[in-house]
Amino acid sequence: MLFNxxxxxxxxxxxxxxxxxxxxxxxxxxxxAAWLGVASVFFYGxxxxxxxxxxxxxxxxxYCLGRGILRLRDQGRSGASGALLAAAVAFNLGLIAWFKYAxxxxxxxxxxxxxxxxxxxxxxxxxxxxxxFTQIAYLVDARQGKARETSPxxxxxxxxxxxxxxxxxxxxHSEMMPQFADTRTYRFDATNFSxxxxxxxxxxxxxxxxxxxxxxxxxPVFDVDPSYRLxxxxxxxxxxAYAVQLYFDFSGYSxxxxxxxxxxxxxxxxxxxxxxxxxxxxxxxxxxxxTLSRFLRDYLYFPLGGSRRxxxxxxxxxxxxxxxGGLWHGAGWNFVAWGGLHxxxxxxxxxxxxxxxxxxxxxxxxxTAAGRAAGAALTFLAVVVAWVFFRAPSLDAASxxxxxxxxxxxxxxxxETRELAWVAVLLAIAWxxxxxxxFVTWLRSGIAARAGAYASSYSWPVLGALxxxxxxxxxINGSRGVSEFIYFNx
Amino acid sequence: MDPAVxxxxxxxxxxxxxxxxxxxxxxxxxxCAAVVVLELLxxxxxxxxxxxxxxxxxxxPLRTYLAHEPYTYSMTWEMRDAHHGRTNNYGQLAPFDYVAxxxxxxxxxxxxxxxxxxxxxxxxxxxxxxxLGSALPVYGLGVSGMSMADYLELATQASxxxxxxxxxxxxxxxDIVRSLIDQPGxxxxxxxxxxxxxxxxxxxxxxxxxxARKSVGDLYLFRYVTQNLRFTLPSLGTLFREAYAQPDPRRxxxxxxxxxxxxxADVPLRSGIAARCIAILMDGDRYAIYDPRLASVPADPxxxxxYLxxxARKLGYTVADLEPVYRARYARDHRHFDYYPVDRHLxxxxxxxxxxxxxxxxxxxxxxx
Lengths: 490, 369
What we know:
Radius of gyration of chain A: 24 Å
Order of helices and strands of chain B: HEEEHHEHEHEEHHHHEHHEHEEH
Number of helices of chain A: 20
Order of helices and strands of chain A: HHHHHHHHHHHHHHHHHHHH
CATH architecture of the domain at 98-204 and 242-363 in chain B: 3-Layer(aba) Sandwich
Distance between the termini of chain B: 87 Å
CATH superfamily of the domain at 98-204 and 242-363 in chain B: SGNH hydrolase
Strand content of chain A: under 5%
Number of strands of chain A: 0
Radius of gyration of chain B: 24 Å
Largest interface: A-B, 24 and 26 residues
CATH class of the domain at 98-204 and 242-363 in chain B: Alpha Beta
Structural class of chain A: mainly alpha
Helix content of chain B: 40-55%
Structural class of chain B: alpha/beta
Shape of chain A: globular
Helix content of chain A: over 70%
Oligomer: heterodimer
Largest sheet of chain B: 5 strands, parallel
Number of strands of chain B: 11
Largest sheet of chain A: none
């Protein structure tokens, strides 16, 4: 059940919200939370019924393991709690390794050794990367005393909460559990509902109109037979089209998730902050898939030592973090190459900043407009080049696109001005317009300034208008058949 | 605090109802405002509009649409490939009026011949007209949704109106099977003890429904949703038109053969044209030519297609299977004959290939003089 499908918009969401607020209004907060959890599991099961048990098993096992870690910690048995944590993390990584990487590892082993070992194709349970990482973070924090959850209902909801279950944002218990426990969550709030609907609308628009609009120009470039020699213009248009498609697809999904959650008075963390406006690659990773960046930083980069053990070690840590971050996205060498490339970018960025500060004496907090523009252009160029590996089905295909982008196969000509116009408009939106959270803030402050104390009355006409445009967007989406979100594959 | 939004628990029932009504009113006002804004916005874009069906369309398919009315066609949500035009005096999509008794070459078919998605000059009839110069008029008679059974009626009316000298029938997938299906507003072959009988299933429209259809049909938002987005909601859709029946795959081959026999036996009689001057062009699965993985499950069984071609040849018709023609052409220059992948209707190249074949066949038989 996609967020942009009829069954979600017209059946699942209204039924879930109505019952949730009905239970909330009757003072049954725990039951309302449980209902949201059950609805979330149904949402997951609608995708893949056979993996519901996997999801529930993972949640139950991790809840019990978390309780065990907490108990051992409370008893002062640090070694035992550490051992249990190691076992729990191994359990989670084992799960993800089997479902996501077994085919990759066996295939690579076979290619390297010619062993002839074969493994039947293992289907990837949707969302496994997200719900596994969410729980690993919980376990680590339980061991450190930062997390303490006793309510199985809230834990079920924390992991399975449908707005984030399939493709994030990757949640942190510290930002969710207090909201599940807050009585204000279990009260219909028209203002929150309308804010959520605006987020949902903007996300749906990004997905249905922007991302899916440019999507037809991507496949013919990346999925072409590698023997076809892509020209400079073909390759660049394809690469730029993918850069904007991925951004609007994933940020659209994240906006929809944030909006859906806001309908239920629950704030999800932001996941995007105009990443293509970043003026260096460090800045890019503070703006792109922010909850993954946070996870990698807190649970991988810092435990590896971060920047505390000297420059060579910092670069090695960066490289390791980004390589694993690449592999998190998918079991393939192209993702390793993408992660590796970003590791190199980050290392170069840190080295350059160090050089400027130490050798040139620059104040890194004060940059000229020209410097920022040049940095933004270079950053975007580097990101687009890396996206080629991210999208290409093989390293050969990536090489074909990159050779075209380097101008090694001639200039070519623009076959369709429509394609050029789409890419140009989407880039202009990504670079020139405010992002969703800025737009919603502007909208709210505008309404508040005009309506004063009656600002909340605006919620109802806003909801009426949004119900119409969301229906139209759903019909547009329906006219093109199934259109999944790119990050569902990860 | 605004009491309309935060009613207290002590408010009376009437006060609560007032609050609910106020909220509902605000909600509806917002929804209406959005509809108005979308309607005004869409009027700036080439939404598929126009083409109002005549009230007696099913009885007189020759005059399907209101005459001399402008129309716009565009496909998909992006309103791609927009075409603007005006219906002629017969309500057909041609930039000139048809003249009664002018002995034209007629080109008969369904939406493939109606060809809203192409400029007239790019259609089969447009191409054929260009090939013939000013020597002979060529009239396209295409009505969306028709099948082989309806073509017979169209041929009958064309004969009475124009006295055509030659005809081209473009038979596309579904034309055979759908001619056996009883659909409101269309003709079909019904099996009787006396053989195949041609019957019309009239639409049972209430007058208010016809008026509503016309009024709503003027709204760009409605047209955008129903034409560009092809949105149908069975319960809502039937308010505006009766649902189309789906082909019944269990329909026997014998019935299909009988329908084909009836069609081939009747066409010369009804059109007043000798079989040798009637070209039957059989369309093929073009997507399968581009990539065998894209092959579709045909509505018409291949065996029925083969039967139609064989019987037509035997009865002296001028016959061409376009599939091998498309295949050879695609192998040569790898150009699509349709709006792949969004629409299977023929594009300019597809129409030109068909027109070239029709011209060669009919001129070879001395029918274009």
